[in-house]
Design brief:
The complex is a heterodimer of chains A (about 475) and B (about 300). With about 475 residues, chain A is α+β, with helices and mostly antiparallel strands. Chain A is built from ten helices and 21 strands. Chain A is about 35% helix and about 35% strand. At the A-B interface, helix 2, strand 7, strand 10 and helix 9 of A face helix 8 and helix 9 of B. Bound molecules: protoporphyrin IX containing FE.
Chain lengths: ~475, ~300
């Protein structure tokens, strides 16, 4: 029993110490400055390189320190995350501690009666004495506040007239909105890093891919590059179709800066190139073996059979390799690189519907092996091709993004409140003595004291001079 | 290139002359010198506006797409900010410091190598336009002048930079005046600075403008990055430095509002903040590698 109690109070004490620790505005400034300083490290030391890279640049000893402290991936290190979480805890605790009293004392604060002597105590105050009666002076005070958009409450106590006026109280909420927005942005980024993914997919024109972790497919209908007159690249474009439940759900042209969004997953134009294992069309020509004369080439689309004029044969393109290589050990073929260094196509040759040969033929080495060994007269050459382009799409899912944007909007509103609205409170006391009205005006503003000085001047002047003008 | 270059040359001269006039006003305290200086500052801002308009006409897109154009935008924003400040507070001495910063900025823009100046068509990643704006402008055939998040990003960021430049000038003035006052020394030139309390307040006001604009700039940059790359934040050096600068000014605001830091310490933070801006703007572009070619 006793131990339980002891345990509880120990916990309670620790809890209140933690609370106390985070209820500190000094901590805020320390964390802000610490984040600024350590972030510099993350820009000076290149991020996400290998240990060897750091050893080369900084020397073995410092490289060890870098790896040990995760400076190589600083912004995702546990201690950088801890600093951000400390900032969040700081905000939560400070808001809990400060917001309720602030709400009470400032936002619902309406002071009908007050001791007129407080007016002199304000850093900003004015006194004017006008030769009118109290009623006229009161009317002027009322009008000038109305003109300037203040809220006013008034009261009388015998010959003493009190005005309490305020304006721009929302300004006080600005910092709170800003802080809430930071929490939203942090929350959004955390959700994104756990529930989102980023992936790349290369799709040949005409192909369809299965979208990772989603119940639909994506087909690339076309890819093309726009150019300026000067030849500089203007834009990379992909025409894509979403296929959902076996049906075409939507078709959209995407380009850099214009992603496609479907069911929370977005597709971005990020890369392109020529396929290394497929072409659009091969140009195939008959060759007279005796003379070496090459006839007119015939365009043969991938996968379709085409007649070769002047011969008995028809051909079909069934394979392509951009950098053909033959591996003796495994007796297989492959492409050494994705570059078209040694383009080769595999064709199937038919005679009256019967497959008679299926050779690889080479763009750069025509005739090194006869395409149809049994035929002494006719050979077949690969003279040119139209590549199949592929488009590199980045596939993203980040369910936190919308929370981040919501945070951004809240921050914007918070800034408008905090920086472009000012909370003024003005106390006015009017008393008639000897046929003159003594008007004392004083008050405070939460920021922008220069503006407040001017406004007080304006109020005083209005009370003093308005009678003369009209 | 011709008209914008012409206006650039004019503007450069105007800024130098304006600076000299403000200096003259400071030294000789002739009212007419001050008035002429202000008039010149208006002429300079008009001329700077013309550079931007001509660039837009020549390139067919918003004039914020390379280092040179962004320098002009910086000078423009700083000058507009200063003229507002002068109109509201009638303190021409501040003009000496602000215009000196602007002349230096014009000089550095003029000295940029050609490749940072030339009118280039936009590369694919920079082509980001608001559809709704393009749709509206299409009716009058001006579709290509539609702007997007990128332009908005650069524009708001540079208003922020301009405000920070002004707060830097004011911070320096504060420190100079404070230095003389602390030692009980009098100096005719320093005496006509505004009061330290006013310098302090104005410097804060400038930051209170700069901070929300810088924040808007960072956020709109994130929105653009999200459109272009699918990641709103990738910790590249430019982004990180903008965060660093933002954190410094956030610390400034908190130190001031919640811990009552005024005067000297606040002025030092304001100066530090602008040094971070300079690094963010030039240092990162030339020293650290990253995605942002400029700005
Ligand atoms: C990057 C982080 C932060 C940003 C950008 C930020 C932003 C702001 C802004 C814009 C203001 C209003 C300043 C002004 O009125 O001039 C403010 C005030 C304030 N902030 Fe923060 N804040 C941050 C973190 C924090 C944290 C962690 C705390 C922790 C408690 C905190 C506590 C306060 C308080 C108490 C005020 C004064 C409120 C008032 O006077 O009405 N801030 N903050």
């Amino acid at each position: 029993m006793a131990r339980e109690n002891g345990g509880r109070s120990w916990l309670g004490a620790a809890g209140s110490n933690v609370w106390y620790f985070f209820n500190s505005l000094k901590l805020t400034i320390s964390v802000l400055i610490s984040l600024a300083v350590v972030s510099i490290l993350g820009t000076v030391i290149e991020q996400n390189k290998s240990a060897g890279h750091y050893a080369g640049v900084l020397g073995a000893k410092w490289a060890k320190v870098v790896m040990l402290l995760h400076v190589n991936n600083l912004f995702h290190s546990w201690w950088y995350t801890a600093l951000l979480l400390a900032l969040a805890a700081n905000i939560v605790v400070c808001t809990f501690e400060r917001f309720p009293p602030k709400w009470k004392s400032l936002l619902n604060h309406k002071q009908e009666k007050f001791d007129p002597r407080i007016i002199e105590k304000f850093a900003h105050n004015r006194s004017v004495s006008v030769s009118v009666d109290a009623a006229t002076a009161n009317a002027r005070v009322g009008r000038v506040f109305k003109k300037m958009g203040f809220n006013v409450i008034t009261s009388n106590d015998g010959g003493d007239h009190f005005f309490y006026a305020w304006k721009g109280a929302l300004s006080r909420l600005g910092s709170d909105l800003t802080h809430v927005s930071l929490l939203l942005i942090l929350a959004g980024s955390i959700i994104g890093s756990y529930a989102g993914y980023k992936d790349y997919r290369f799709i040949n024109v005409g192909d369809t891919i299965e979208v990772p972790n989603a119940g639909f497919k994506l087909r690339l209908d076309n890819f093309w590059i726009d150019q300026y007159d000067t030849g500089q690249v203007k834009q990379y474009n992909s025409l894509v179709t979403v296929i959902d439940g076996g049906k075409e759900a939507l078709t959209k042209q995407i380009w850099v800066n214009e992603p496609l969004a479907y069911k929370g997953i977005r597709f971005y134009q990020s890369d392109y190139g020529m396929a290394w294992d497929k072409i659009d069309t091969a140009y195939i020509a008959p060759v007279k073996r005796k003379t070496g004369d090459t006839g007119a080439p015939v365009p043969v689309k991938w996968g379709t059979e085409e007649k070769l004029p002047g011969t008995r044969y028809s051909v079909k393109v069934t394979g392509y390799l951009s950098d053909f290589a033959y591996d003796e050990k495994t007796n297989s073929v492959g492409s050494l690189t994705p570059e078209p260094n040694n383009p080769a196509v595999r064709i199937e040759i038919y005679n009256a519907g019967r497959l008679i040969s299926a050779p690889w033929i080479f763009l750069k080495y025509p005739g090194i092996f006869p395409a149809i060994p049994a035929d002494q007269d006719v050979d077949i050459a690969f003279t040119n091709y139209k590549p199949t382009l592929y488009s590199g799409l980045s596939v993203n899912k980040d369910p936190g993004t919308n929370i981040v944007w919501a945070g951004a909007i809240v921050m914007g509103v918070g800034f408008i409140f905090a920086f472009f609205m000012y909370h003024r409170r003005v106390w006015v006391h009017v008393k008639e003595t000897g046929g003159r009205a003594e008007v004392r005006i004083g008050g405070m503003i939460n920021k922008n004291t220069l503006l407040f000085e001017k406004e007080l001047c304006e109020i005083a002047e209005y009370v003093e001079k308005e009678g003369k003008k009209t | 290139m011709i008209l914008s270059l012409l206006f650039f040359t004019f503007s450069f001269v105007f800024y130098v002359v304006t600076t000299l006039l403000y200096l003259g006003h400071w030294a000789f305290r002739k009212k007419w010198l001050g008035q002429t200086a202000t008039a010149m500052a208006y002429i300079a801002v008009f001329s700077t506006t013309m550079i931007l308009i001509m660039r837009a006409a020549e390139s067919g897109h918003a004039p914020f797409s390379n280092l040179y154009e962004s320098m002009v935008l910086f000078v423009w924003a700083t000058n507009v900010g200063y003229l507002v400040l002068e109109y509201k507070h009638r303190q021409r001495v501040i003009g000496v410091f602000v215009m000196a910063i602007e002349s230096l900025a014009m000089l550095s823009a003029a000295l940029l190598p050609y490749k940072f100046k030339s009118v280039e068509p936009l590369n694919p990643a920079l082509q980001n336009k608001w559809h709704w704006m393009a749709d509206i402008l299409r009716h009058v055939g001006l579709e290509k002048y539609a702007i997007g998040w990128l332009d908005f990003h650069v524009f708001t960021t540079f208003i922020g930079y301009g405000a920070f430049a002004i707060s830097f000038g004011l911070g320096i003035m504060y420190l100079v005046k404070g230095y003389f006052e602390d030692r009980g020394r009098r100096n005719a030139f320093v005496d006509i600075f505004p009061d330290t309390s006013m310098l302090d307040e104005l410097s804060y006001r400038a930051i209170a403008w700069g901070f929300p604009f810088l924040s808007t700039g960072i956020i709109s940059g994130a929105i653009w990055a999200d459109y272009a790359w699918g990641t709103y934040w990738s910790w590249d050096p430019k982004e990180t430095w903008s965060l660093i600068t933002w954190l410094i000014y956030a610390a400034y605001l908190h130190a001031r509002v919640t811990r009552g830091w005024r005067g000297k310490r606040a002025a030092y933070l304001a100066v530090a903040g602008f040094l971070a801006v300079i690094f963010l703007y030039w240092g990162v572009s030339f020293i650290l590698p990253g995605l942002h070619a400029y700005a």
